[in-house]
């Protein structure tokens, strides 16, 4: 495997609106991030993924861009961005931007021109089609609910003679899809990305990229819901031919600039992983949603997986990547609820439970991503009423639950648990009003836990979740090859409470190995280690060293009972050097 500069990266995701407000308007901003760079350097991360900060009417909080080269005034200025890049660089931290290339805002000048004039040179930057018999061109359902087609009102300046025209939006109607079949449009996007790289941006997280190619036949699909619509997946997700666009994007932009890219690429099949994220592939790495998107599209399925079920999902993902591609392991992002709520019982939302979860995902193959507040152990906000929410898709989900016959209480319970706003409540900095996030009224409510769960308190507590994340990051940085590229070897696949895996890396006579053990049970558990790791067939050495543990000190030897078993404490998480 060739060395790339980003192989040892540990990425921290920032949702700028909720990170740190520097001017008291209740919204986080770029100067706020710059103020907190020392905190991030102390944590040890090496790169920041910044969710969109470009000009946007904020229908989807920045994922609806109206100017790719401008900063939304609420977040600051271009100058603030340049300062952030320069200050981060001084601390050895790279900046990765969020590239939203599937769609723009309906307020983007290209779209405004396209929708108001059928002869506009920008008309073909988007996807306009004629419907038939008063119906939209196809029956596809948009991801945020309702049809993917929005009509161009008859008689409006943008309507063609005869009317009946629609434009396509895979997400909200304020997010019209770009027409990637148009080479001029593609070139405009490439120029824009080069422009950001000229400013010192080192890489990109690439939004919704698997939707850029649509089935050119635009067929109707079998209806699959009470709304009379059909899931768009067969015609819009990783549709054959997409690889040509992605290869061009790589060859014209990312490759010549040696940029890091991580794709939000739903729908990539295991046999495609090598092409997408293998060496020389379309992207540097790929997010795998197998073990995070538990609802798998059925968002009202509030499912708490057992340890065995979670293990199956994680191992399936890791085995799929074996030798094929690079993953980007993560447990939280701005589209998910908080991980303790997703994977643990409420009694387990303790320092031990949260750090055990940390160990579980952080040492998987690939480039790990930590989401703001995860390193503090934040949990879901205790929502009390509908008007506390902000997220466009949360409101849609609530309405869809009612339409599907659920009671108001049930619908509320679903969004309480699942809403994306759970990850978007303000970062908890200290125990002052608004948790030190803002001197104004925060745009989303502040979690009441801030009195004890906050960055300031945790930085001073050697036993905090924050301190533990620091140690995890330090350990990963000490063994970049092992944890980035090492083989993934599953163990104990029948155990109901334990998740155990090994990482192993061999190169030029050097052999590094680590065993990761997570006890999901509230009881002590014995682990028979006679067949695991260790030298030869004797199992783990009595003297095997603890590299990291949430219940034992690093550097201690593991010890074994006379039976040869290891006795694990409840919610114990452990990384052993073998
Ligand atoms: C995925 C992003 O993560 C999500 O927040 C956004 O709503 C959609 N893409 C649309 O851009």
Quick tags:
binds 1-deoxynojirimycin, about 575 residues, seven-stranded parallel β-sheet, alpha/beta
Task: State the secondary-structure class.
Answer: alpha/beta
Strand-residue fraction?
15-25%
Spatial shape: globular
Count up the helices: 16
Mean pLDDT: 94
pLDDT < 50 runs, ≥5 residues: none
| Largest sheet entry | 7 strands, parallel
CA distance, first residue to last residue: 23 Å
DSSP summary, beta strand count: 21
Lateral arrangement of strands in the main beta sheet? 13-12-10-5-2-1-14
Helix content estimate: 25-40%
Bound molecules: 1-deoxynojirimycin
Radius of gyration: 24 Å
Structure description:
It is built from 16 helices and 21 strands. It has 578 residues and is an alpha/beta fold. Helix 11 (351-362) runs parallel beside helix 15. The mean pLDDT is 94. 1-deoxynojirimycin (NOJ) binds at residues 60, 63, 100, 171, 207-208, 264, 334-335. 1-deoxynojirimycin (NOJ) is lined by residues 60, 63, 100, 171, 207-208, 264, 334-335.
Summarize the structure.
The protein is an alpha/beta fold. The protein has helices at 30-35, 37-43, 78-90, 109-116, 183-198, 233-236, 242-257, 273-277, 307-321, 339-343, 351-362, 392-403, 408-418, 455-459, 465-478, 480-485; strands at residues 11-14, 47-50, 54-55, 67-71, 94-100, 128-130, 140-141, 149-152, 165-168, 203-207, 230-231, 260-263, 285-286, 369-371, 487-491, 498-507, 510-519, 525-527, 545-549, 566-568, 573-577. The strands form six sheets. The protein has a seven-stranded parallel sheet. Strands 15-16-17-21-19 form a five-stranded antiparallel sheet. It has a three-stranded antiparallel sheet with strand order 6-9-8, with no helix packed on it.
